[in-house]
């Protein structure tokens, strides 16, 4: 199966640099809606057969234009949600952001037993994200798109892809509506096909002033 992991459009927290992984969370900014509206034209030729979203509002809103264009009903998979911020939820100070990032970086490097302060461990995260992807695989489609989140996509994709170092995802940025494309399965292994770090709608949809901690290289 080929799986397109699409990051949601810009949220207010992405602009201000706030760590926000609370469910269901906020919707999109005006720019975020423009990013979502650009997806149907950008992905028209990808052969997408099924759409999936997390339990967070921002993925539902981002997926809506593409779902309408393709005539598909997105399926909610809570396991696709962002990595929990735990005690760091709602914080934006440098110490909190660095602690969040260093914890996630450790998971990507193999220390999955470590835990986000007041939140999930790396083992917890990979178990629920793997389960979500397994549910996508079970549909039997050849091409699927899953709307997910910056830290979650980068951590999972870099760890499972056999043709990248474990820390690859922490060294690459992933702007809102950027796409990480992988193919394979858990049985045969996963391979990174493409890492589109910029919004698929083009350079004009990048906000260079945003203080986005989960989209920047860690």
From TrEMBL:
Annotated EC: 3.1.3.-
Region called Disordered, residue ranges: 197-218
Record Pfam families: His_Phos_1
Keywords: Hydrolase
Domain of life: Bacteria
GO molecular function ontology, one term from the record: hydrolase activity
SUPFAM superfamilies, per the entry: Phosphoglycerate mutase-like
Keyword Signal (UniProt): no
Name of this protein: Histidine phosphatase family protein
């Amino acid at each position: 199966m080929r799986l397109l992991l699409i990051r949601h459009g810009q949220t207010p927290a992405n602009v201000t640099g706030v760590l926000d992984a609370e469910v269901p969370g906020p919707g999109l900014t005006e720019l975020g809606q423009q990013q979502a509206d650009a997806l149907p034209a950008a992905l028209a030729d990808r052969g997408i057969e099924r759409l999936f979203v997390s339990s967070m509002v921002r993925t539902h809103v981002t997926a809506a234009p593409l779902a309408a264009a393709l005539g598909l009903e997105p399926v909610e998979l809570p396991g696709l949600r962002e990595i929990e911020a735990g005690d760091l939820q709602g914080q934006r100070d440098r110490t909190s952001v660095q602690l969040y990032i260093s914890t996630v970086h450790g998971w990507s490097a193999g220390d999955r037993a470590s835990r986000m302060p007041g939140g999930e461990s790396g083992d917890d995260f990979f178990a629920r994200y793997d389960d979500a992807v397994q549910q996508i695989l079970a549909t039997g489609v050849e091409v699927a798109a899953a709307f997910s989140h910056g830290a979650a996509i980068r951590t999972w994709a870099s760890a499972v892809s056999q043709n990248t170092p474990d820390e690859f995802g922490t060294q690459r940025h992933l702007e809102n509506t950027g796409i990480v494309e992988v193919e394979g399965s858990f049985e045969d292994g996963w391979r990174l096909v493409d890492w589109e770090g910029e919004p698929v709608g083009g350079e004009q949809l990048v906000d260079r002033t945003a203080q986005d901690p989960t989209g920047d290289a860690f």
